[in-house]
Amino acid sequence: MFSPIKIAQIGIGHNHGDATMNTLRRFPEYFQVAAVAEDDKAWFEKRKCLKPYQDLRWMSEDDILDIPGLEAVCVETD
After folding, report:
1. pLDDT digits (tens, 9 = 90+) for 14-30
2. H helix count then E strand count, the chain
């Protein structure tokens, strides 16, 4: 049986970042979104409320890379 890929996203500053997250969240049978990070306070304030990021766990980049069982990371920095 296939298990969803445990994935996180670092950065929300790139213009395609929210579209990437939207796609990941539309397919929970394939992706388990573990967390999202944005160290740039300006991007965080500007985009944190976008629908694709609602109800996700926000962490630092270092903490994301320490998530047990993490299999993939999308990098969406500007």
Report:
1. 999 999 999 999 999 99
2. 3, 3
